[in-house]
């Protein structure tokens, strides 16, 4: 299957797209209440017939009274999926008032969020919910896949053919002919399983001002608060020389471009890289090695 195929799309509207069963557990919360939810019959009434998730304003309806959420209205090209009537721009104001008056579980409940919140609080909460899906961290393509970490790891392996490595230390040899022809490029070399977490190693070629450079950095597959519990070091070298970098992995909540533009990684100019490579400077031969460790609390 090609990367970014439809089977992975729209997880932000429906966690159950990946076959993950939605569940709620009883637990306290500062941002939302747990325990008693609104009547399940009302929840069924508010479910969109296309994405099968609870609708919230604006809710649209066709002349026959069938309702649909605003996201799916565009997907079905303004045609009611129930009766094939044109949807137009008719709002179901009565159902919108119902939606605003009840409490709903966070749409990321299938990823572990236990909060039940009023409508307006739910929208604010979901924008920053720590359980929301992660974007695919694969560099070099704009992959639309979103999901939880186990799903993203499986996707990287199956659809992007990314190498998987168990252990907290690594060695790579990067060889590229005609390095002068590479002006802007990015590669994800490996995903590491270390301490039960996953890390992505990136290697990029770009211009820093007018100087062509290479940059290596590590991203953590999880949120920033967990990423900050780790440190890593990278060494790049060859021909008897090497350079070293030590840093904290960035969360994949930050795109690889964000990390690159912040220069938060090991940077080496093309001239130095070619010097490390030896020979006549016509081929890039770099050894990238490193290790990951957990900081003491």
TrEMBL record:
The keyword Zinc-finger applies. This is RING-type E3 ubiquitin transferase. Its EC number is 2.3.2.27. Transmembrane segments: none annotated. It comes from the Eukaryota. Belongs to the SINA (Seven in absentia) family. Pathway: Protein modification; protein ubiquitination. Keywords: Metal-binding, Transferase, Ubl conjugation pathway, Zinc, Zinc-finger. GO terms for cellular component: cytoplasm. GO terms for molecular function: ubiquitin protein ligase activity; zinc ion binding. InterPro entries: 7-in-absentia-prot_TRAF-dom (IPR018121), E3_ubiquitin-ligase_SINA (IPR052088), Sina-like_RING (IPR049548), TRAF-like (IPR008974), Znf_RING (IPR001841), Znf_RING/FYVE/PHD (IPR013083), Znf_SIAH (IPR013010). GO terms for biological process: protein ubiquitination; ubiquitin-dependent protein catabolic process. It catalyses: S-ubiquitinyl-[E2 ubiquitin-conjugating enzyme]-L-cysteine + [acceptor protein]-L-lysine = [E2 ubiquitin-conjugating enzyme]-L-cysteine + N(6)-ubiquitinyl-[acceptor protein]-L-lysine. CDD domains: RING-HC_SIAHs, Sina. Residues 48-84 form the RING-type domain. Residues 101-161 form the SIAH-type domain.
């Amino acid at each position: 299957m090609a990367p970014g195929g439809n089977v992975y799309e729209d997880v932000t509207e429906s966690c159950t797209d990946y076959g993950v069963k939605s569940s709620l557990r009883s637990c306290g919360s500062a941002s939302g209440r747990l325990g008693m939810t609104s009547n399940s019959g009302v929840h069924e009434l508010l479910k969109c017939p296309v994405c099968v998730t609870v609708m919230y304003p604006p809710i649209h309806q066709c002349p026959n009274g069938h309702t649909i959420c605003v996201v799916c209205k565009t997907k079905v090209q303004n045609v009611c999926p129930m009766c094939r009537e044109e949807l137009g721009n008719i709002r179901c104001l009565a159902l919108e008032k119902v939606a605003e008056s009840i409490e709903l579980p966070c749409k990321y409940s299938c990823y572990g969020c236990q909060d039940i919140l009023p409508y307006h609080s739910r929208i604010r909460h979901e924008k920053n919910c720590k359980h929301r899906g992660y974007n695919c961290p694969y560099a070099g393509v704009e992959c639309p896949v979103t999901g939880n970490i186990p799903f993203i790891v499986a996707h990287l392996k199956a659809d992007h053919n990314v190498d998987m490595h168990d252990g907290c230390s690594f060695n790579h040899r990067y060889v590229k002919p005609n390095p002068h022809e590479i002006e802007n490029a990015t590669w994800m070399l490996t995903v590491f399983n270390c301490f039960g977490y996953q890390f992505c190693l990136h290697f990029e070629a770009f211009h820093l001002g007018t100087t062509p450079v290479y940059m290596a950095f590590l991203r953590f597959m999880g949120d920033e608060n967990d990423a900050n519990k780790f440190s890593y070091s990278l060494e790049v070298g060859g021909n008897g020389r090497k350079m070293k970098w030590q840093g904290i992995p960035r969360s994949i909540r930050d795109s690889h471009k964000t990390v690159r533009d912040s220069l938060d990684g090991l940077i080496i100019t093309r001239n130095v890289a070619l010097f490390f490579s030896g020979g006549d400077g016509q081929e890039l031969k770099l050894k990238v090695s490193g290790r990951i460790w957990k900081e003491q609390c």
